[in-house]
Every structure is written in C-alpha cells, then in structure tokens.
Amino acid sequence: MQEAACMAALQRLQPVSHVAVSGGTHGNEMSGIYLVKHWLREPSALQRDSFSATPFLANPLAIERCVRYVGRDLNRTFTKQFLNSKAAWDEPYEVQRAREINQLYGPKGSAQAFDFLFELHNTTANVGACLIASVQDNLLPMHLCHFIQTHCTLGHYPILLYNLPDQEAYSISSVAKHGLAFELGPQPQGVLRADLLTQMGALVACALDFIDLFNKGTTFPAFETEAYRFIGSVDYPRHPDGELCASVHSKLQDKDFLPLRPGDPIFQTFSGEEILYQGHATIYPVFINEAAYYEKKIAFNKTEKCSLSIPALQRE
Amino acid sequence: MQEAACMAALQRLQPVSHVAVSGGTHGNEMSGIYLVKHWLREPSALQRDSFSATPFLANPLAIERCVRYVGRDLNRTFTKQFLNSKAAWDEPYEVQRAREINQLYGPKGSAQAFDFLFELHNTTANVGACLIASVQDNLLPMHLCHFIQTHCTLGHYPILLYNLPDQEAYSISSVAKHGLAFELGPQPQGVLRADLLTQMGALVACALDFIDLFNKGTTFPAFETEAYRFIGSVDYPRHPDGELCASVHSKLQDKDFLPLRPGDPIFQTFSGEEILYQGHATIYPVFINEAAYYEKKIAFNKTEKCSLSIPALQRE
C-alpha cells in the first residue's frame, strides 16, 4: 500500500540536455571564476555520456577588476523589469550583460531556455558548502541536493531556499528551466583557497553525475529532508548618521546555520555593550557578516528550518 | 661585569609627546578603520598621563568606496619621490594624500615630525597579530614590540622586519620619527570581525601604556628576541598569458610564520599537480595568499628567522 502511494507520487520530467555552469557572477568570488577558466581550457571534466555542460564567465568586466560588480549587482538583475528593458546608453553594464546571458541561456520562462544552470559563489561567511535553490517546488534541483547530500563526502550540505513567497526569482540561474547555486565559504573576496576550489569542483562533478543518471532513466525515490527558508534580514546597529556602531558579536560570528534563540547576543557595540536578539522564536542565521552585504544593510539573513517531502523522480 | 656592559649599552631617547594612530591606510581593512572612527567619537581611550594620541583616517576616499586604494597603493607612496613631487592635475589621489599626511604628521626626516605613528592593518592571511617594523635599528619600536610580547596575553606577536637593506622606507609610519604597524589576520577585506577588533584595540592600548611608562622614566632592560626578516617574494605559477594556473597548496595555506623546507609543496595546479619549494634553505612564508597581493604578483613573502640583541632603553 505504501509502495503504491510512492508510485502514485512519481513525477516525470524531460531529460536534461542543455546544461551551463556560470562562474564569476560576482567578479571577486574566486572559486567559480578559476574553475570556469580552467574548464574553458580543459572542458573534459564537464563531459558526461548524455550531455556536456557549458562553462561561462558571467561578469567578465567585474572579474577583470576583481570587484563584485561594476554598475549594479548582476545577480539581482534577472527579473522581467531588467530583462525586458530596452538598451540605454547610461544603463549599468550588468543590465546589458543580463540581457545577453538571457539570450544565450534563456530566454527566461521559454521552451528554448537551457535545462539547467549552475551558479558558483563564495561568501566570507562560514556557510560551509551551501546548496541554494529558489523554492522547493522545482523537483530536479531538490533531488540533486539530496543526491549531493548522500553521495558527496567532503562536507555537510545545508539546503537554503531563498525566495520569499510570490517573489520573482532574480538570480542568474532563473533564466534556465532549473537552477541551483553552490555557495562556499568562508573565503575572502579576491582570494582563491585550494580547499574550497577542490570542494566546489567535486560538487559540480557530483551534480553532473546526477544529471547523467537521471538522463539514463534512474529512478530517484521519494525522500524527506530539512531545509532553511529565508524569512528576512537584520541590519547592523548604526549611529544616526548611518555609520556602524557595532560589529557582529563574537558569539554569533561563524555560527551560520546554528540556532539563535531569543536573548542570545547578536552584536557588540564599539563601546562594549552587548545587543541581544529580540525575536520570539529560534531562527537560523546565515550569511553572517558577509562582506558584500554591508552595503545592502544586512548583518545576517534569518532563516527558519522546515521539513520537505519530495516525491520520487524519473525522466519521461 | 655583565651588568656594567648592560649599563654601558643603555640608550637614551627623547620623550614621546606627539603620537598618531592611522586607520584605513587601505580602505577595506576594517579593524583599524572602525577603531579610528570610534576614537574620533570617543577619544578618551587614547589619552595617557603624559600624552594623547591623535587618531586619523589615512585614505578617506578609499574607505568610502571600501577598496584598498583609488589610484595607487597609499602605503607605497611615502618615499621622497612622491612626497617631494609637485601637485599635478592627473596624479593619483593617494600621491596628493601622502603629501597632506606628510605635512600633518611629518615632514619625514624633520625635527617637527610626530614622535610615533602607528599603522593599523588587516590581511586575509593567517598572520595572527603581527608587529611590523621597518628595520631593527630603531630602538623604541623594538622595545615596544618586546613590551607587547611580554604584556599582551591575547595572542602570539611575531615581529616582521620588512625593509630590504638600503631600501627607503615607504609606509605611512615612515613620516614620523618612529613607527610600527599592527597587522591582524585573517580577516576578509570589507569584513569587521569582533575578535580582531578587540585584539587590535588591546594592542594599541598596550602600546600607549608602554609609551607612557617610557615618558615617565621607566628603564627597559636589554633583551634578546627573534624576528622574521623579509628577503623576497614568490609569484603564483601562471599560464603564458599571465593567468594563474595554480593556487597556493592547501598544505601551505594558513601556515604563515611556520617553516617551509626545500621540497615542501607550495602550489597545486588546477590540473592537480603539486609544485614543490625549490629553495636551498628553510624559510618562513608570510602573507600567504593575501588578496591584495595577487596584483603585486606575490603568492607569499619569504622571510628568514633572525636573532636580535637590543640594548636597554630609557628616556633622556
């Protein structure tokens, strides 16, 4: 009877033939940049029996300058507002580049779009190797996450769901039919660490193996898993003129994905006072003290833990 | 007899009345920037019986943009060539700013120059809390280093001597009569860690205590100590077009100030090969994989360990 229920829930999806792997969506996140540069010279690592993945550098100008972006954050630019905008002489470089990428690997929401697009990111926060999906509804990325969690032995792989309800997906992978981001940290901007480079390469290899198995007809059983769902963010305490007056508390620093309870310290002011978390429920902070988020007024993102029940999957 | 020899070696220096503490010589090294911003609001922490130290932000434009520099590295700009140059409309911002700083806290080499200038720096390398002096001949900084090593309990404080023989000192502290840099890491560019902020604040407090004791006539006995002397640097392996083809080896990463022996691995190529250290003697690498040094073609700096014998010191 239980088996019948599982069988009933089996979902079928089309094979995945067009796969792209993007590095350097942010031009100072070095693991993805140097993996992609390496694969452009030696593409064999991205070949499988049933497909070959296409590597590309998403923001070449930012990579050249080793900055996150030149005009605006490219990875917040893949919304209809920007993708459907007309070229203007004074538009940020990344708006033009987002349209280009949408033409090459999308168009977003269309039948011609690539089947799968991977994003490679680094953060200065201690997230380990985090798997970021927009929402849980997209079965292929969720099964891919589960495959990595059960087959990749180099670390722990928490799943982060970043889209708020009814929010349009804005990241580069949203131009393809399915997408997933690998977010590895801590790594300083502009620094290439061998350990994270190796781990990111192994993650991509594992992901491509999964897609190859899927294409060959493997049935991936239903499963239950935990994920962390983005629910909002917390800014740094500031003076009236906008200047920071506190840093992330040393007891919160590096504690990404660990529970933060009401009353726990979150900041320490430069005068030595502690600021405590005033929320009413336990949350799981992520991207704690990420360098690129100071300007976004984010000291850390808040997530809640949730349980997911994912049906079985097989190709059509 | 031994005591007499020590007494004979006692050196006397003038009291130290004009002291400055510079943060943000590099605009993305956050510990010094936020300590100085805090002290500008609350200067009492820099006051002692015999003097008050003056905090200042060295590169305001780079700090505003959260970049190392705008036009050129400010901390390589305090040489006669730049300080004596005439203002030009197309000169880098930092050349103009170096002249300003030289007017305010120098002029370099003059009797009017400040007595002591501290530089506050961060690095992405795992140097801990490193004390950087130009050369060992300047007694006051060397005694200050020893005082920190024996009185500051938050860490280990290696001394780094950065000037090559006959090389003109080029850093911001060289405009004053005496100078010392505190270099704390690892901390990503653009990130403020509470632990390093606390440690840097304690280092500056300890240094000001030392100067106050010196001014009040305390005799600081002769001592022997170890230091690391800069002897050169090693670039990343590169493809013929200049692109990196390897990262720092995971066995060298984070091993600043530890011995590197001939035959030890230093790089791993993106294709998986190890590159071994070909030198003939044991060295002590520092600034391993520092973000700001990729463009300077430095994967790590080489130092050799040396023993210093420093005579006793008292004020005149």
TrEMBL record, chains A, B:
It comes from the Eukaryota. Residues 224-305 form the AstE/AspA barrel-sandwich hybrid domain. Its EC number is 3.5.1.114. One of its GO terms (cellular component) is apical plasma membrane. It is an enzyme of class 3 (hydrolase). The keyword rRNA processing does not apply. The keyword DNA-binding does not apply. InterPro entries: AspA/AstE_fam, Aspartoacylase, AstE_AspA_cat, Aste_AspA_hybrid_dom. One of its GO terms (molecular function) is aminoacylase activity. Binds 1 zinc ion per subunit. It is a peripheral membrane protein. Coiled coil: none annotated. Keywords: Cell membrane, Cytoplasm, Hydrolase, Membrane, Metal-binding, Zinc. It catalyses: an N-acyl-aromatic L-alpha-amino acid + H2O = an aromatic L-alpha-amino acid + a carboxylate; an N-acetyl-L-cysteine-S-conjugate + H2O = an S-substituted L-cysteine + acetate. Its main location: membrane. Zn(2+) binds at H26, E29, H121. Residues 17-211 form the Succinylglutamate desuccinylase/Aspartoacylase catalytic domain. Its cofactor is Zn(2+). It is found in: Apical cell membrane; Cytoplasm. Belongs to the AspA/AstE family. Aspartoacylase subfamily. PANTHER family: ASPARTOACYLASE (PTHR15162), N-ACYL-AROMATIC-L-AMINO ACID AMIDOHYDROLASE (CARBOXYLATE-FORMING) (PTHR15162:SF5). NCBIfam families: PRK02259.1. This is N-acyl-aromatic-L-amino acid amidohydrolase. The lineage of its organism: Eukaryota, Metazoa, Chordata, Craniata, Vertebrata.
